[in-house]
Specification:
Strand content: 5-15%
Number of strands: 12
Helix content: 55-70%
Number of helices: 24
Radius of gyration: 38 Å
Shape: elongated
């Protein structure tokens, strides 16, 4: 199925970015080059991520080129955490000031505090005495508002500074993440252009598009939102634990009982959720592939009345996606409620023990208040960690799919030892070429032939004979099993693929136009072509005739599906594209198979102009389109069974003769091998050249 995907090898035009970003990405590229085989960015890493933790580790590793920036982010978060966790302790001090003022106001002045406490003990009120022993009150004196205002101002300042540092860390981290994702997208695009055609032959385009778009977007969300919250929450937990032990190590132990219980619940539930998230994104890719097929083959689906079948297939895959997505969200959504329940149990225990310690005089009211606040703040980051676990698991599942793409085996690297001149003669020679798509199914074996410079070589044969494969080997879309192909006596494997393909022009069976003007579509063949050269190519290929009739002329924008021009006009534009490229070697792969008879005559004339003074390979099922070829190769099962010109092969009455007769209704004896049949009327059994002919069926060659 090679030719269906051959267009995928055309690299997309590069887009510009800011100079600053370019410089930073260049530095990252240097890092990548030094990282070696284990680098994530597009080589062939040693192993593929198969489970959550390897994939998560590799996902976090995407940030490694920005180590300095990440250190700054962590430092900013650390300052935020320190200020945030110290503030409740100072608020506790403020609470002690208020409580001391309330106690002192209700006690007559003049009696020292220690005397009052001793009097309470002597009167049997030991509990009250123990509680007052931890209060720094002054009999007869109320709340010290000066000291209280100082504490409040300190706390407000700390919270304000902490907020600024939190914002700064989030801004910097988001900036770093966007650069990482930018480079990841670039690496994915570069990887796609380095993959061999057989990779695309065996995968749905919808699934590939999902990996390149949906999965990368999900990675961005995971890094951009979950990572910052995760780092901040972990640091906050550590800071709060430290402050808890500073205030009361006994109560800290009670609070920490909830930690292993929460971790166990998150681990058990998270493992199950990760499997469901992986299934969710896998089913998303499958559903995208189904939708892409439905739209691209919409007309065919209508013709064969397969609407109900497509709806059933869509419903089945949508149901699978629904089950996986619902299960992933439901299971991962259980993490936070379970952790909250455990934290509430710890909170109740802390409140009870704290009240008893205040009453017994072993802890001040301010410290108890601060500790209770710590216990609530302790559960909040734990809950945040549980919340981002949902997003992290989804992001890791997407990362695993993206890494599978980045780890895919690439085509053999170029080992160019020579270069072609600016203009080549176009002499092509196959020497004992052997090739097969799979070892158990041989296709081409020990094939040898030559195409002389300036000659037209037509390749015909039944479906599956290897016609398209032959020209794909010339283009190095696939590598040979053995033998070699020479272009002007140079082995094509000694040339870079870019150098080789720059001398070759292709017109495919499926005319491909991208969203842009007609002028841009033609200029795609040679980006430095001037407007005059584009118009000249259009005139030579009969494009100018219909373009002039369009309201916008050459500035007419072709939509993504090319529906605002006819199939024949699309084909003529692709021929003009090849014409403006001015190649030394031309490949025409069923270029007239999808056009009407009248347009076919124009296409044939355009191709005749295009073939002038250059070596051409023409693949055709309509034998009338290749009657004037210098050499006709007849292929069967990967072998050349006959070769010669049209008259010679008809006279031989072999495989070509049988193919020729299968396309016409006239008896074999009516055909004169030496007769010029171009003037024989169609009613005589042999149609006029260019007239509509019945086809025996057309399929993509393997």
């Amino acid at each position: 199925m090679a030719k269906k995907h051959s267009k995928n090898n055309a690299p997309a035009p590069n887009t510009g970015v800011e100079a600053e970003l370019d410089a930073e990405l260049a530095a990252v590229d240097e890092f990548d080059a030094a990282a070696g085989a284990d680098d994530w960015s597009g080589g062939a890493p040693v192993r593929k991520a198969q489970h959550f933790w390897p994939s998560a580790k590799r996902l976090i590793g995407l940030m490694s080129p920005y180590k300095l920036g990440m250190v700054i982010v962590f430092a900013l978060i650390a300052v935020y955490v320190v200020l945030s966790v110290i503030a409740p302790r100072i608020l506790g001090k403020a609470m002690d000031v208020i409580f001391a003022g309330m106690i002192g106001k209700n006690i007559p002045a003049g009696t020292p505090a220690d005397v009052i406490i001793q009097q309470l003990r002597d009167s049997g009120q030991g509990t009250q005495a123990d509680m007052l022993s931890k209060v720094d009150f002054v009999p007869g004196q109320g709340i010290d508002f000066t000291q209280l205002s100082q504490y409040i101002l300190i706390v407000l300042s700390m919270y304000f500074i902490a907020s600024v540092f939190s914002w700064a860390s989030g801004w910097l981290l988001n900036r770093l993440v966007m650069r990482v994702v930018y480079k990841l997208r670039k690496d994915v695009e570069d990887k796609l252009n380095r993959l061999p055609l057989n990779y695309f032959d065996t995968r749905q385009r919808g699934d590939l598009l999902s990996r390149v778009t949906n999965d990368v977007d999900n990675i961005q969300n995971a890094l951009q939102q979950a990572l910052s919250q995760l780092v901040q929450s972990v640091m906050t937990v550590i800071g709060i634990v430290v402050m808890m032990f500073v205030v009361s190590w006994q109560m800290a132990l009670i609070a920490l009982v909830a930690l292993p219980l929460s971790a166990a619940a998150a681990g058990i539930i998270g493992t199950r959720a990760q499997k469901l998230f992986t299934a969710q994104w896998k089913n998303t890719g499958a559903l995208n592939g189904q939708i892409e097929e439905s739209f691209s083959g919409h007309e065919l689906m209508k013709v064969f009345g397969r609407e109900d079948d497509m709806v059933e297939r869509f419903t089945a895959r949508n149901e699978e996606l629904y089950k996986a997505s619902f299960g992933a969200q439901f299971v991962s959504g259980m993490i936070m409620p379970v952790m909250n329940f455990v934290s509430y149990l710890a909170y109740v225990g802390i409140a009870v023990v704290g009240g008893l310690r205040v009453a017994s005089g072993t802890m001040s009211l301010g410290d108890a208040t601060a500790f209770i606040q710590y216990s609530r703040e302790f559960t909040q980051p734990l809950g945040q960690i549980a919340g981002v676990a949902n997003m992290l698991q989804s992001g890791v599942a997407s990362a695993e799919r993206t890494f599978e793409l980045l780890d895919a085996e690439e085509q053999d690297p170029d080992e160019a030892t020579t270069a072609l001149p600016e203009r080549t003669d176009g002499h092509v020679a196959f020497e004992n070429v052997t090739f097969s798509y799979s070892p158990e199914k041989p296709l081409i074996e020990n094939l040898s032939f030559e195409a002389d410079p300036g000659h037209t070589v037509a390749i015909v044969g039944p479906t599956g004979a290897g016609k398209t494969t032959l020209v794909n080997l010339v283009m190095r879309f696939y590598e040979l099993n053995s033998g070699r192909i020479l272009l002007d006596d140079i082995d094509v494997t000694d040339l870079s693929r870019a150098d080789l393909r720059s001398k070759v022009g292709m017109v495919l069976q499926d005319a491909w136009l991208f969203g842009g003007s007609i002028m841009e579509n033609i200029r795609y063949g040679r980006l430095d072509a001037t407007d005059e050269e584009v118009v000249e190519a259009a005139k030579a290929t009969f494009v100018d005739r219909f373009v002039r009739a369009l309201p916008e002329g050459y500035d007419t924008v072709i939509d993504e599906e090319g529906t605002n021009v006819s199939a024949g006009e699309k084909q003529l534009i692709t021929i003009a594209r090849a014409f403006v490229a001015n190649p030394s070697l031309l490949i025409l792969d069923e270029a007239t198979s999808s056009v009407d008879t009248r347009t076919e005559l124009l296409v044939q004339q355009a191709m005749a102009a295009l073939r002038s003074d250059r070596t051409s390979f023409v693949i055709a099922h309509r034998l009338s389109t290749i009657r004037d070829a210098d050499t006709i190769l007849v292929m069967e099962a990967g072998r050349i069974v006959e070769q010669g010109n049209h008259e010679q092969l008809l006279a031989a009455k072999g495989a070509y003769y049988n193919l020729y007769q299968s396309q016409f209704s006239g008896p074999a004896e009516d055909v004169d091998a030496t007769e010029d049949t171009s003037m024989i009327p169609a009613t005589g059994g042999v149609p006029v050249v260019g007239a509509p002919e019945p086809e025996t069926g057309r399929a993509l060659d393997s």
